[in-house]
């Protein structure tokens, strides 16, 4: 059963899966920094579940952040383990509340896409290694190092929490932005 809460559509606990609609650019929530989660309660845990369901339903998606489904809280999920770029170097499904990057190093340019900018991809320079800290839905604080494609995906999702899109990271919109051919 679906219910409206604060102007947003939410599922009741009896449903098994909730794939939420993706907010697309230029919706202003995508450009607004998110609020810190003060308390992890059932509503926040349900939000995490909805993000996972939405990520798995998305074409080629390796992550989703809460503003992409219309919720301005510092929550995102990432799983690069099924992607050809991340299958050999990953930490599995990451359920992140209030994530923060503690350190970064290295740099590489990679082509990025985003469900919130469905018609374009772009070349973005990101750090190739980072140290990350976040809280899991059960309250456990986790800290680890990520590298390669997983580090890039983490930075992409954390940008969403800061009100940034990959479009904001492209050095040149003339030479670094491309019309998407298809989702794979």
From TrEMBL:
EC class: hydrolase
Species classification: Bacteria, Pseudomonadati, Thermodesulfobacteriota, Desulfuromonadia, Geobacterales
UniProt name for this protein: Peptide deformylase
Swiss-Prot/TrEMBL GO biological process terms: translation
Pfam families in alphabetical order: Pep_deformylase
Cofactor note: Binds 1 Fe(2+) ion.
Protein task: Removes the formyl group from the N-terminal Met of newly synthesized proteins. Requires at least a dipeptide for an efficient rate of reaction. N-terminal L-methionine is a prerequisite for activity but the enzyme has broad specificity at other positions.
Catalytic activity, EC: 3.5.1.88
Any one GO molecular-function label of the UniProt entry: metal ion binding
Residues annotated as the enzyme's active site: 157
Gene3D superfamilies: Peptide deformylase (3.90.45.10)
Keyword field: Hydrolase, Iron, Metal-binding, Protein biosynthesis
Names of the cofactor(s): Fe(2+)
Family: Belongs to the polypeptide deformylase family.
Catalytic activity line of the entry: N-terminal N-formyl-L-methionyl-[peptide] + H2O = N-terminal L-methionyl-[peptide] + formate
Entry-linked CDD domains: Pep_deformylase (cd00487)
């Amino acid at each position: 059963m679906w219910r409206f809460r604060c102007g947003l559509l939410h599922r009741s606990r009896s449903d098994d899966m909730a794939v939420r609609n993706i907010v697309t650019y230029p919706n202003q929530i995508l450009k607004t920094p998110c609020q810190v989660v003060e308390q992890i309660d059932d509503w926040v845990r349900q939000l995490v579940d909805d993000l996972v369901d939405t990520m798995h339903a998305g074409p080629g998606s390796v992550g989703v952040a809460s503003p992409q489904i219309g919720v301005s809280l510092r929550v995102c999920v990432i799983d690069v383990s099924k992607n050809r770029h991340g299958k050999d170097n990953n930490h599995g499904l990451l359920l992140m509340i209030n994530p923060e990057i503690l350190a970064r190093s290295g740099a590489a340019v990679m082509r990025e896409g985003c469900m919130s900018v469905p018609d374009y991809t772009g070349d973005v320079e990101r750090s190739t290694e980072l140290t990350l800290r976040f809280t899991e839905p059960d309250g456990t604080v986790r800290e680890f190092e990520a590298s390669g494609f997983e580090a890039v995906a983490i930075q992409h999702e954390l940008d969403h929490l800061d009100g940034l899109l990959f479009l904001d990271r492209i050095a040149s919109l003339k030479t670094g932005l491309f019309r998407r051919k298809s989702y794979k």
